[in-house]
Amino acid sequence: MAENVHNTSAHDPADHGHHGHHILSAKLLLTVFFSLVGLTIFTVGLGLLEQNEIVHLGAFSVPVALAIAGVKATLVAMFFMALKYDNKVNLLAFSLSIVFLVVFFVFTFLDTGFRGSFDDFSATPIDQTQLEELRLQERNDAILPDFEAQPLLLQGDTALIDPTP
Amino acid sequence: MSTTTAAAPVRTQSAPAPKHPPGHEPVHNYLLEPGPSPDVRGLARVWPTVKAWVTTVDHKRIGVMYLFAVSFFFAVAGIAALLVRAELMNPGSDFLTADEYNRMFTLHGVMMVFLFIVPSIPGSLGNFVLPIMLGVKDVAFPKLNLASFYVFIAGASIAVYAILSGGIDTGWTFYTPYSDETNTAVLPMTMAVFVAGFASILTGINFIVTIHKMRAPGLTWNRLPLFIWALYAVSIVQVLATPVVGITMILLAMERLLNIGIFDPALGGDPVLFQHFFWFYSHPAVYIMILPAFGVISELMGTFSRQKVFGYRAIALSSVAIAMLGFLVWGHHMFVSGQSPLSSIVFSLITFLIGVPSGIKVLNWVWTMYRGSVWLTTPMLYALSFLFLFTIGGLTGIMVGTLAVDVHLHDTYFVVAHFHYVMMGGTVMAMIGGLFYWWPKMFGRMMSETWGRISAGVVFFGFNMTFFTQFILGSQGMPRRYFTYLPEYHDLHQVSTIGSWFLGLGLLLVLGNMIWSLFKGKPAPGNPWGAATLEWTHATSPPDHHNFHRTPLVTHGPYDYGVLFSGDGYSGDGAGGDGSGGDGSRGPAPIPNPELGAPQEMEKSIDLGLAQPKPSRD
Ligand code: HEM
Ligand SMILES: [Cu+2]
């Protein structure tokens, strides 16, 4: 609230108290550091194993790599960025930015993952429809003579019609 | 006596009890103070005045400087538009070659979008009004605010450099692969966009923090003026989306400079990915452009219908809904880009959804006028223009958002007409309406009502003549960004070009009116329109350097106009204490005489004994 309309700079040092940094023990920091290093080595190792076809992850290769990277990023955010001990609003802002990134990725992969699949979405592919139309036309042409109407009277009956005007 | 250019002295002790009765303190007109003292005369005033302005951290002055800057770019880009239209008067080359034509419409688009419309309402009206509406002295980070202005100017200067060094011919969308290949000034122009983007981000952060942390006592979220709600929503979008356009421009620069394959298929990139990046920013950016306009219109509709804005919460929350949903529809710009049909279908569906919150707003505004006493001042005429034009623009948006229809209409004049109806018919109309509305507050002078109304008519007529024809042209197949066309389009193109002259004339009338009012306008009272938000009820016209002498105490909703006119200043209806709901029992509030103004509520404030003592010289 802005009670201090005219008071531009008076900052009460006392109300800074609870913003202070949470001090993490060296042990915790080192643990996190070595877990990060460990995870990195794990990623690289996994990559090598895959390359030499010892481990087969197939389609899961990228998701697994991303998952490990995600764990690492979480560790960094929680401890090095101290979000774990910070005001929860900051955690919210951070998470929202992740959600935001996910939205961008998901929708973009919705495109790149399904490119060129136009035919799958049309009830009948357009070229098939055209082909079918062509076939019908040919069949039509082929059977047309059979359906040619035969005149019932080949010659006019002169007896019935008086030729003289 | 030396000049007093520095900001007001910082007080460390509480001041002696005020010597003036509430509401009658001497006013330090922010336009003049701080500045040279009155005994400095003639040319000697120039430098101290300029210095006081360019180094100011006063949100009001920054708002005014933004207003000048964006008006300048609006004028330049507008002239480019008139040239584009003039060239299209006849098929073939009249006075621009095909190449020059491409540069001209790109110049128009880039300037209008990145240098005018994005910063327009938040930078000028927002900066000026937001802190006063919240009842505070300034935004949360005044220096950051000034920095945002200079970052904007830096971006604009780079843009000017890009234009002078040959211009750019890609269109405002910078689509790859063409923007990778053309040897026009793509790099400087994208740098300009990158830099100007930061100005948006800084403003957004400033607004969010100010709204969250600094509201005057009594100003609950339910009593926030809808303009503030809109600026809040838009700030979120700015902070979230603008970095993406920055990244996109950096990626494009990396590709051009370092030959890293990102968008260029020759290097293994994906050109459609550029469109994803670009529209991931630029569709939310169209809401950056329109949401502040929604806020302005809500203020105008309430004040000039003389009753509570109908559906206060629905309007407030639909701004937020638009801000969120706006992030999920960008693919509707890419229906024919080769994007996968699955995403086209999904994007088309979500595009339909976004029509819902927009529709909610329009219906609520219409309902606000119902049974009100609609007061057809110039700002209201512009607000009504907005209502017509934005509705056309929004509905044609749904049309082009329809997957099958857009396959035909994409990249035709129909799309051009659609976005001009929303951007110009929407945002620009709202901005002009807002300027007419807040002008007395900003400069302490009334504008001419007669000429204001005439200008509203001419602009409305010229606008429709220019752009309605383009709907027809587009539906007949006229492609956009072509400098020549088939003979069957000739007539409509001519109508459109002549319309653009009316539009230009109307806008000149607005400009003339403003300049006239600065010198000849009648002095404005504190509350000419009888509005109920803090900038009208608690501040002088023009406001004091510190906005308020004492912190205002908010005791009613932003649209409780009747309260101002009831004898003791408070109607006592406990239920109507926030912005929501109409009460139905009372009729609309009386219409004041704008030259005399409506009652203010200066006495409703909290005196902390911090008021400025009377300066020695007055
Ligand atoms: C109901 C809301 C809206 C919907 C459903 C909508 C939908 C669309 C769609 C589908 C397109 C792509 C058409 C095409 O290129 O084939 C489009 C283009 C565009 N819209 Fe909207 N729109 C809406 C509101 C707005 C607003 C409020 C603005 C700006 C203030 C805006 C500005 C634009 C611009 C600038 C383009 C053209 C971009 C370009 O290709 O240069 N739209 N709109
Ligand atoms: Cu869009």
Keywords:
heterodimer, A: 165 residues, 5 helices, rod-shaped, disordered N terminus, B: mainly alpha, two-stranded antiparallel sheet, 2 strands, binds protoporphyrin IX containing FE, binds copper (II) ion
Silhouette of chain B = globular
Could you report the average pLDDT of chain A, rounded to the nearest whole number? 78
CA-based gyration radius of chain A: 40 Å
Q: Helix content range of the residues of chain A, please?
A: 55-70%
Number of helices of chain A: 5
Q: What is the strand content of chain A?
A: under 5%
Distance between the termini of chain A: 115 Å
How many E strands of chain B? 2
Q: Would you tell me the overall average pLDDT of chain B?
A: 88
The low-pLDDT segments of chain A are 1-18
Largest interface, with counts of residues having CB < 8 Å to the other chain, equals: A-B, 27 and 44 residues
Q: How can the largest sheet of chain B be summarized?
A: 2 strands, antiparallel
Order of helices and strands of chain A: HHHHH
Low-confidence stretches of chain B: 1-8, 568-576
Q: Helical amount among residues of chain B, as a percent range?
A: 55-70%
Show the helix and strand layout:
The complex is a heterodimer of chains A (165) and B (618).
Chain A (H helix, E strand, L loop, with lengths): L25 H26 L9 H20 L7 H25 L5 H4 L4 H18 L22
Helix pairs in contact in A: 1-2
Chain B lengths: L45 H9 L4 H29 L10 H37 L7 H23 L13 H4 L4 H28 L12 H33 L12 H35 L6 H14 L15 H29 L8 H24 L1 H7 L3 H31 L5 H27 L14 H31 L13 H4 L13 E2 L8 H5 L39 E2 L12
Antiparallel strand pairs in B: 1-2
Helix pairs in contact in B: 2-3, 2-4, 2-15, 3-4, 3-6, 3-8, 3-13, 4-6, 6-7, 7-8, 7-9, 8-9, 8-10, 8-11, 8-13, 9-10, 10-11, 11-13, 11-14, 13-14, 14-15
The complex binds protoporphyrin IX containing FE and copper (II) ion (CU).
Copper (II) ion binds next to helix 8 of chain B.
